[in-house]
Structure formats: C-alpha cells, structure tokens
Amino acid sequence: MLTFSSVYADDKLLTFQGEVVFVEIEGGFYGIVDQNGQKYLPSNLPDLLKQNGLKVRGTAQLKSGKLGFKQWGKMIDIIEIIYQKK
C-alpha cells in the first residue's frame, strides 16, 4: 500500500474511488475515472501509480474554476491516494 499526502488550503475537498486510465489525447496522459464515470485530471499523480487500470481511492482538492489545456475531466490536486494491488 502506498499513501501520498499533500496539504492545500483553498477550494473543495472530494473523495474518490475508481481506476487510473491512460488517455490518448494530446500526446497521452493519466487520469482517474471514478465508479460513477466522473473523470478527474490529477496534477500530481505519483509516477508509481501511472498504470492503466490500477484501482485507487483517496482524497483530492478540486481546482474549481480552472481549465486545463487537455479539456478532459475535473482538475484536482491529490491529497491522499491508496492503490489496490492487482
């Protein structure tokens, strides 16, 4: 189990449970799709967790009002993330 933690002061906290996905847009990047199909674009996903299909859960800071150039998912900063071994 890996736990990654950061602290942020503004915007809204959210919890998620889903899987890491590789998105083949703009040269490719990793995002998270939760159990309800909501897409999240983390700014700080640890390299160790950049594995397509990896099951994860955690807490993140929603970066409301900010648009990324990738135009995919809601932008988040991960505060804590835990993965399930395959």
Summarize the structure.
The chain is mainly beta and 86 residues long. It is 0% helix and 49% strand. A five-stranded mixed beta barrel has the order 2-3-4-6-5.
Fold blueprint:
Blueprint: E1 4-5, E2 12-23, E3 29-34, E4 39-42, E5 55-62, E6 74-83
Parallel strand pairs: 4-6
Antiparallel strand pairs: 1-6, 2-3, 2-5, 3-4, 5-6
Question: How would you sum up this structure, described in words?
Answer:
It is a single chain. This protein is 0% helix and 49% strand. It has a single domain, classed as Beta Barrel (OB fold (Dihydrolipoamide Acetyltransferase, E2P)), CATH 2.40.50.500. Strand 3 (29-34) and strand 4 form a beta hairpin. The chain has a five-stranded mixed beta barrel. With 86 residues, the chain is mainly beta. The radius of gyration is 12 Å and the shape is globular. It has no helices and six strands.
